[in-house]
Fold this protein.
Amino acid sequence: MEFITNSPAETESIGVALGQRLKPGTVIAYRGDLGAGKTAFTRGLARGLGCREIVTSPTYTIVNEYLGGRIPLFHFDMYRLRSSDDLWDIGWDDYLERGGVCAVEWSENVDDAMEDPIIITIEKTGEESRRITIEGGEEFADLSL
């Protein structure tokens, strides 16, 4: 399914709609260039999960945990990791077992560590506009704003 957004707020609203439907154990694999809107989408995802914490990019911390919603959200940034071995070293299996939602930026760096993720590709189509494609998770086929 594909969406076109024209502002960060619209990108977040798609994240909210998706977050309201997610189940424990869901893995989200983000694709997109720097500044595409992955963190903006995750802010919406967190709101959809009921989290009221401020969501920031985990660029330097590798993972940020948001525990205040109906399901925990673990927001990963794999930009600095060289392989999925590095992901396993930081406790990926522990995060999977905790029953939260794992949202993974730069997931292509650790593809072989993820089983059956929902793939969200965010592409810049203009200064503020984005094309967001969601693949997998057929239960979201009727997702609308």
